[in-house]
Amino acid sequence: MGARNTRTSHAHNHLTEVVSALPHAVNPLALSLNENPFPPLPGVRSALAHCVDAANRYPEFLPERLRALIADHLGVQTEQVVIGSGATGVIMQVLGAVTSPGDRMVMTLPTFDGYPIFAQMARLTSVTVALDEHGHHDLEAMAEAAGRARVVVVCRPHNPTGTIEPAADIERFLQRVPQDTVVLLDEAYVEFLAPEHRLDALELVRRFPNVVVVRTFSKAYGLAGLRIGYGFCAPALARRLWTMQLPFGVGASGLVAVAASYDAECQLQQRIRMIASERRYLRMRLRSMGVYSTDGHANFVYLPGNGGHPWRELFADTGLQIRDYANGAVRITIGNRQSTRAVLRALAPIATR
Ligand code: PMP
Asked: Which UniProt keyword terms apply here (predicted)?
């Protein structure tokens, strides 16, 4: 009796501890991971209850229905789409399908922190090409390096700078990259782009059989915790990638949350517009304080290190979580207006100097 009570109370403690350690949906200080500041939409929350009720059941063996749903939404063939545990899972799937240990993978410096880790996991050699002082890619140098590599990564918008390369430059770059080098066109933040800045990704995958466009539900869709990402490319390459699709690897929550999100497209678009306008407001305020930020088109701003201003130290005692880089730069995710005010307060000592 005593023993059972002890076990019960232990189990209870586990849950209490775990739940109290979960991140809060709304936290104006959490600006280091480029998460969405909004909690899940009501429609998505209530839809998720359906998969909780059948948690004893496996999801589909391979995520055929999610694949078809996304393909239909995009306007591509179902067999052109692969699904992953976040964009992260998709990228690892690509590396698993097209690389061998020792191959080279070209990326910029700095880039999304994941890329050097993914290269290491796939036993690839990372080749880095530095961004210029405004955070732009040297696409000429990248195309050159791609000639001796298996994979080359272009993020558009880029992380951490938020910058975008013009469509014509991307086009020229793709023309130059050999067809047996796979181009990962990482569009994790594409939904934040104004329509005039979007690439015609469907047309690109039609014309370039070596391009994989990678996207995620973690950012604009605000579902980072559910781990849903996808890639799309030419059918022949997609067939190779689909062979690496992990059996039972995508939970039913992914399918349900994506369907509910597509049904709530208007509300999502409104949130995306709010985040984009908050970014414009923060950049405008920074400019008026004399603080330079790169031409950001995603849900974050990037202040390059300039040697003089110790950005990281300004945030040290504010409680704000931001991402800082070895080169002295910081990247700050766009949150709500309260977050923006806290960021501006942290930077105020610089403005009055
Ligand atoms: N690509 C880029 C450029 C990113 O910034 C991120 C997340 N920070 C990812 C991919 C991976 O996102 P996820 O695995 O959550 O989809």
From this structure: Aminotransferase, Pyridoxal phosphate, Transferase
